[in-house]
Design a protein that fits this description.
With 402 residues, the chain is α/β, with parallel strands linked by helices. The chain has 14 helices and 13 strands. Helix content is 37%, strand content 15%. Bound molecules: pyridoxal-5'-phosphate and zinc ion.
């Protein structure tokens, strides 16, 4: 139940086509809905599938022919141990390591490829920092698309193998993600493919809203006081903001007052830097961080992320690579969740915000952990305790271990 696309800048309207840039002002296009026509109830959603598709009426899809590997509806885990360690009264981890390809990208890809099929495309493609590649490869295999996947050639082995195993055409580009993205814009203008994060981007990005929808539903149809969201292109953060807003617009929750805070790695923190300078002008950087899935030096939605954070009264912080690894270990030790480096960015930022009293002890907080640690083991391998080796005897066990 949506009407098409709208320019985020000049508000010109476009039909629902594979377009992403306004022809008049070059502003980015966004999906527009007729909220007054959307009839939806809590009960109807609660009885829906245990996936992102329970929110289909708030997604830009008309077909019932879904590309669905069951992404979403991940646990909202009450994190009492971590809350205690940080000095918070009430903390939740939205654990999106639990997804078909172990990151939140399955949400956006399920929507993007459903839309690509609706548009009649046979070939899909993407530029990726790793997780998107994994998810496009898997969903394309399942749905029978040809897939061209472009990644920086220096990605973690776990992310490369997690893409290659599905047998797409996987292309390693000598350069950063921003180089890959630029190349893909050029390739996209020559070939009639569904580039999930280029010409299909307005639809793709909507999939991220489901993280916000689920948070509200799992809290009993209300939003928390504060959320901490990792920022790469800035899309996820803006969509969580949009999700809370939409739930209110269709009458499912009361007006949200949630503060939205962003998390970046110091080695790639263009949005945090602009926030601290109180500027809406983002200066592109050359990334250098272990949080490769967040390593976008020229973030497409950075400006809108800044505006959403500012409007909500939140903050944007950046953390060092050492803080990221320590935070991954902290989350694992306290809550039994093994996050990738991006999850470490979120948890380290959460810790920093609490320590700086920017998140108050009594603020109910949700932290988004968006990818699994097994994909980025090289970031931790020299910072964990390897097992002590013993002879296969009780005596050796007692002598060496106890
Ligand atoms: C892609 C990604 C993000 C954030 O992406 P945005 O581009 O800001 O929407 C966060 N975490 C992980 C693990 C990701 O792969
Ligand atoms: Zn415009």
């Amino acid at each position: 139940m949506y009407k098409g696309l709208v320019c985020r800048e000049c508000k010109r309207q476009y039909p629902a086509k594979a377009l992403h840039v306004c022809e008049f002002c070059f502003g980015p296009l966004e999906v527009a809905y007729q909220y007054d026509k959307i009839k939806i109830s809590r009960q109807e959603i609660e009885q829906g599938p245990k996936s992102i598709w329970r929110y289909k009426k708030l997604l830009p899809v008309t077909t019932d022919d879904l590309v669905d590997l069951s992404a979403g509806f991940s646990p909202l885990q009450k994190a009492n141990n971590l809350a205690k360690e940080l000095g918070l009264k009430s903390l939740y981890i939205k654990n999106d390591t639990i997804n078909p390809t172990y990151s939140f990208k399955d949400r956006v890809v399920s929507v993007a490829l459903t839309k690509a099929r609706e548009f009649g495309y046979k070939t899909v493609a993407c530029a990726s920092t790793g997780n998107l590649a994994n998810s496009v490869a898997a969903h394309a295999a399942f749905a029978g698309f040809k897939a061209f996947i472009f990644i920086p050639q220096d990605l973690e082995e776990g992310k490369v193998i997690n893409s290659a195993v599905y047998s797409p055409t996987l292309v390693g580009v000598e350069g950063s993600y921003d180089d890959v993205n630029r190349l893909c814009s050029e390739i996209g203008s020559e070939f009639d493919w569904a580039f999930v994060n280029i010409n299909i981007r307005p639809y793709y990005a909507e999939g991220s809203k489901t993280l916000g929808f689920e948070t509200a539903e799992q809290l009993g149809w209300r939003t928390p006081d504060h959320v901490v969201v990792p920022v790469a292109s800035g899309s996820l953060l803006t969509k969580i903001h949009k999700a809370f807003d939409e739930l209110c617009k269709v009458g499912l929750i009361s007006k949200p007052t949630t503060k939205i805070s962003g998390a970046q790695a110091e080695g790639c923190s263009p949005v945090a830097t602009a926030f601290k300078a109180r500027s809406l002008n983002i200066k592109p950087v050359k990334p250098n961080t272990i949080a490769k899935s967040l390593a976008i030096g020229n973030p497409a939605d950075g400006y809108y992320a800044l505006k959403a954070v500012e409007k909500s009264g939140g903050y944007i912080e950046s953390v060092t690579d050492d803080e990221i690894v320590d935070a991954v270990k902290l989350l694992a030790r306290t809550e039994g969740i093994f996050a990738e480096t991006a999850g470490g960015v979120t948890i380290a930022t959460l810790k920093k915000l609490v320590e700086a009293k920017k998140i108050k002890p009594d603020e109910e907080t949700v932290a988004y952990v968006t990818g699994v640690g097994l994909k980025t083991i090289e970031a931790f391998s020299h910072k964990i305790d390897y097992p002590k080796t013993i002879k296969p005897s009780v005596q050796s066990f007692k002598e060496t271990i106890l």
